[in-house]
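Note on ligand handling. Small-molecule inputs were canonicalized before submission; formal charges were left as drawn, and no protonation-state enumeration was performed. Where a ligand contained multiple stereocentres, the stereochemistry in the source SMILES was retained. For zinc ion, this procedure yielded the string shown in the input block below.
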Amino acid sequence: MATQTKDYYSTLGVKKTASADDIRKAFRKLARKYHPDVNPNDKKAEEKFKEISEANDVLSDLKKRKIYDQLGFYSDNIDPAAAEAAARGGYGGGFAGGSPGGSGRAGRGAQEVPFDFGGFDFSDFQSGGSGRGGAQEAPGGGFGGSFKDIFGGIFSGGRKARGPRPGTDLEYQVSVDFWSAVRGGVARLEIERQETCPACKGKSTTGGSIECPECSGTGQVTQMGGRMKFNIQCPRCNGTGKVQNGCPTCGGDGVVTRKEPLEFRIKPGTRDSQRIRLAGKGNAGTDGGAAGDLYLIIKVGTHPVFTRVGDDIHVTVPVTVAEAALGAKIEVPTIDTHDGGGRTQLKIPPGTQTGQKLRLREKGVPSASREGVRGDEIVEVKIVVPKVQDERSKEILRELAKLNPEDPRAELLAEV
Ligand SMILES: [Zn+2]
Ligand SMILES: [Zn+2]
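Structure output:
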């Protein structure tokens, strides 16, 4: 199980600064010497030929050579950008200056690389013989972070981060009846929200520690990145192998779900679909994180007579043929019950047609956003034709028709 970390330069007998031409010449020379055709049944020559071929394969390719120079080893699975980042981060000084002796451990270089490549040539890199010794001697200590920075793109992450986390927002739909929305009122509802755990005060732990369930106390976990296997510092316990004892009341969540009655004021003029934000009334945060907000979406109820359109009130009012033709003063309903019992006088001008709209200024809904402003009431006239039964009425209508012979469809038919 020797670790096969290789010094390709010394394998080819060239300097690290060797040019592409130097490398090609050195390989050809050695290849002629160790080629299996020249050395039939010579196991040592065959091994040597494989070694120089591998060295040439990496060093003769500019991209591969660059990665090798940066990390001290090469694998097809290494992303050049990651190698670059690793090199910039101060890791991977390479294995320069030394042919790997006996065990094949590469000394200084190996310890500077903060991960191992299980399943590849480098599988024993960290764990061979001395357990995790190599990794732990490495400078800086915090491998987890550096590792994630370097190979950030490989892993999906998704591990629960510790530290303060803000609470999420909540959204509730609240039904408000027509009159409460117009005049204002109080709405009551029961909401279910996460609140700070009273036992651990949101810290998720009651003190004391247990073996980390993620790494079973070893402080290391294995992650897959494509076909590569990495042993990395356990992100849950940060390599300590221990985690704090979870709070039994909240199960370590830091929050508990509670039903809570809520009472809030409905402003006069509140509109349908309006969102009301109650800051800090959402789910509680954990470990000191801020609470989310509570959003109430108002659903305003309907009324059998009045229809709200923004701050305006629409109402359809039946009018007789005589009232519409001759003009009249009629009584129409309003939303004001305090003056005149919810009625007001409306003048129907002579010759009013059905569907015509008449405006009663400032008889609409008080604006919730603009102080002292009210909408209008829009009265739509609907002419009601009398159900004529008696001969006398019929006679009068026939006479009326004779006196007014104009065809109401003349214009319509002329258009076609
Ligand atoms: Zn752990
Ligand atoms: Zn708790």
